[in-house]
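Extended Data, panel c. Modelled sequence:
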Amino acid sequence: MKPNLFQYVRAKSTKDAVSLLEELGEDTQILAGGQSLVPTMALRMANPETLIDISAIAELQIIELSNGVLTIGAGCRYVDILNRDLVVKSAPLLCQAIPYIAHDAIRNRGTIGGSLALADPASELPACMLALNAVIIVESNDGQRKISALDFFQGTYFTALSENELLVAVEIPEIGSNQIHEFHEISRRSGDYAISGGAFVLTLEDSLITCAQLAYFAVSDCAVLATNAAEALEGVSLSPETIISVSDIVAGEIEFFADLYNSEATKKQVTKVLTRRMLTKIYDGIG
């Protein structure tokens, strides 16, 4: 199939893009990498009257570290992020996650902003943002506002982003010397959507865990934090017994959603296995 007829406008700047959003109204969509939007238009699942292309806006492609905060522009492609030493050193969780995203063709064109704005519950990056305590920066004609990742992702393809707002960047706290980042997902084949995936950030003092962020994707209606399991980890040292206990807590607190191929029970069991694998890897690394 081919998409319906639409108008195409190329924005020259962020200010230009948000002005166009305000002017053209609700039947307008943003085109960045186009890895999700273009296929849905071809299937006529999306029928925007106008596309605003933001792919040439230089200010959306920054990657910089200042005062302990890593800022990544929404227009940065996955491959741009993966190949930057600054990201490897400051937020290694992202560089662990990106190789799991689809295939090279997608990673060469897809953008971080597009992924976060779409809020696909099976996407890797929203879970990473939750685990990293990231802040999402959006802009409209009224100015910028910052939204915590916890408040940004609200459901399947549903975020706190208003129709007249453009996602322009994310801010991520720089990894601490006492932090461990770990990412893993389980899928049938490389490049497939995950059956279950996790993004963990643990903070340790000596051998004790002082803070834990356990984020999951592809298991519910959006990326979720396992807060009860995280609380069970805080103040204790990792051990085989703790790992089993925490995995059981995770399986009990998440509201699992079936997908086309996997039942809720399958998601639950795979998530328990995933959690054990990830915590065991961390345990082996610090033991």
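DSSP finds twelve helices and 14 strands in the chain. This feature is highlighted in the accompanying rendering.
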